[in-house]
Amino acid sequence: MLANQWLDNVRRLQDKIQQTQTENIHKAASLMADSIEAGRWVHTFGCGHATLPIEEMYPRIGGFVGFHPLIEQPLTFFTRITGESGIHQFLFLERAEGYGSAIMSSWNFDQRDIVWIFSHTGINAVNIDVALEAKNRGMKVIVYGSAAESQDKKPRHSCGKNLFELADVVVDSCAPLTDASVPLKDHFDKIGPVSTMCFITLVWMTVTTCAEILADCGVKLHIHPSHNVPGDTTARERLDECIDAYKKRSFGL
After folding, report:
1. What is the mean pLDDT of the chain?
2. Residue 29: what pLDDT?
3. Which of 17, 25, 32, 131 is in Cβ range 3.0-4.6 Å of 166 for a Cys bridge?
4. Is 219 among the domain residues?
5. Residue 2 lies in a domain
6. Is residue 193 part of a domain?
7. Mapping DSSP to helix (H, G, I), strand (E, B) and coil, where does residue 184 land?
8. What's the CATH number where 92 sits?
9. What is the C-alpha to C-alpha distance for residues 161 and 166, in angstroms, rounded to an integer?
């Protein structure tokens, strides 16, 4: 069954991530923990399907305050496909040099902040803009994506560097460059992409590592609780505490 083939592909990649990326995940999580402990932010950015790992981490049950999504509406996943905010417009915007700089100009940053970027290939201009602007502001840049498989791809930016070359820490998603992983009879293109599963795996490996580092340092985390457990009478109170902590940290953004 092709379903089992896809599942085997995902499991193989998750095993590869565990075997090859644990050290770099810890490096990234340590930088994030320093920023969060200082009362600052880990700003998260991506385009298209690379916004999914951003939406996964906060606000999310089991996530905690310290991660700020820099999701730009025209670059999020498009459900209309054609017409307004369609695929053609999205492809244009993610390759438009200068757009990422405009996005960054709308926020206030601190040198203690981190910018965490998700990008499968690391070649599109908007991601590179965001990384360059972050570095110009003295922030560390962490990039997750298919770094090894993208190293020969030419960047779509005048700086001449891809996103992985600009990063302070790179974590390889281990996903194949084609993303889709399952051949289909009588078809040229494969089906069953795997990059999102790799990104989500890396998100929770990183966030749990970051949480462990902070807890070991005695830092109290504001963890987003489940609202659906029968008998949990303090869930709303804990949720309100999370939102209050998020609002206090958001001052100045």
Report:
1. 95
2. 98
3. 131
4. yes
5. no
6. yes
7. coil
8. 3.40.50.10490
9. 7
pLDDT in tens, 152-168: 899 999 999 999 999 99
- Measured over the CA atoms of residue 188, residue 189, residue 192 and residue 193, the dihedral's sign is positive
Return left, alpha or beta for 132; rule: phi > 0 is left, psi -120 to 50 is alpha, else beta.
Answer: alpha
pLDDT at residue 81, rounded to an integer:
87
Measured N-to-C along each axis, helices 2-20 and 22-37 cross at an angle, to the nearest 10 degrees, of: 70
How far apart CA 88 and CA 84 sit, in angstroms, is: 10
Q: Which two tokens stand for residue 56?
A: 């996964």
Bridge partners of residue 191, in order along the sequence: 182
**Burial (0-12, 13-18, 19+ Cβ within 10 Å), 38:** exposed
User: Six-digit token pair at 87?
Assistant: 């695929």
Is 1 inside a domain boundary?
no
Domain count, the chain: 1
Task: For residue 95, give the nearest of 28, 154, 34, 15 by alpha carbon.
Answer: 154
| pLDDT tens digits, one per residue of 213-231 | 999 999 999 999 998 899 9
Is 107 in a helix, a strand, or coil?
Answer: coil
Range in 23-32, 90-99, 205-214 with the lowest mean pLDDT: 90-99
The continuous run of DSSP H or E covering 68 comes out as: strand 67-69
Q: How far apart are the C-alpha atoms of 97 and 212, rounded to whole Å?
A: 38
Q: Residue written as tokens 């869930």?
A: 235
**What's the rounded Cα separation, in Å, for the pair 128 and 110?**
19
